[in-house]
Prior knowledge:
The chain is α/β, with parallel strands linked by helices.
Amino acid sequence: MDYVLKCIECGREFENEDIYICDCGGLLEAVINPDTVEIDFKFDGNNLKVWKYRCLLPVKIKPVSLQEGGTALYKVDKIAKELELNNVYVKHEGLNPSGSFKDRGMTVGVTKAIELGKKAIACASTGNTAASMAMYGARGNLKTYVLLPAGKVALGKVAQALMHGAKVIGIKGNFDEALSIVREVSQKENFYLLNSVNPFRLEGQKTIAYEVVDEIGVPDRLILPVGNAGNISAIYKGFRELKEFGLIDKIPKMTGIQATGANPIYKAVIDNREDIEPVVKPETIATAIRIGNPVNARKAIRAIYESGGIAVEVTDDEIIKAQKDLAAKEGIGVEPASAASIAGLRKIADEIDKDEKVVCITTGNLLKDPEAVISVCGEPIEAEADIVSVLEVL
Ligand code: AN7
């Protein structure tokens, strides 16, 4: 399969794969030449995993894999009924090996790092990227370096990054500052940067689109939380490619959800702009999407406009309610950022046709952020170790 990295702004094409950004400052995208692709999979719902779609993934060597993808797709009829909708699904990306969708990107990104002869990989992270990168770095024998906003990353994610052997540095600043630092450090130290500005990482994440089509055909609408805006860009690219290759005939309305305290893409879309104004001090309980200056904003905003989608903002209270609904009514445990997709669905339910096929992506697992859970649910009740005391509190 032939592909080039192409600038989404000026159209310049690069043979060199060891770059992240065009000289003009534009984001890059891996553009596959459809005439050189031989589709060797069937959309039959079987054998779901990222590497089922290898013929559309731009890597040449044996992948560094932990059997990512193939996540569960649940129909959520109780939540749907409350909203007077008939076809609502949740694709639970929290069931990936590290507990988030980032694994789809990392299996491709880390494989590319090895292909390029890199010895070390790096990222800034609100947590999940770090956890996933540490895991795949370990699997691929690479050194891993992580910059986090100190005190603002869910405990489970920090624990993962540490245990899988990353060098973890908490900076006294936010994610946007960490990303700007790690971009420069990576250049100086020849680390392969695995934030979502890396076009190959997004290639892995586009398989969410492929898998949804494999399972239920093309939905009418796809809803997901938006932070650094890589995932919405990647999933849109996945659908766009399938359409270009003649495998599907429509693209779902891409619907991006942000927290009110970290909402630059929402603000741009309601003003019909193509560029964001960064939020300088982003804040939300959904620390995964506590991002004020998303690097993939221009890709994401195009994905929303071109697909006829929208952007929505939700409050922390709405996020917590959605997290509880998913957990207590449907048995699906997700972290706060992931619940934003259901909170967003609730907000726009009136505008959705009742028979629309809607897929909400829940991006990360409940276990990632136990502290957020305790802060909203409280501690367990204590009782003496005897039957009478237990019956009393029941
Ligand atoms: C659970 O880990 O940015 O819009 O550094 O962990 O593609 O950034 C995490 C993002 C949604 C937003 N849900 O995805 C990181 C990081 C969860 C996340 C997002 C993240 P993008």
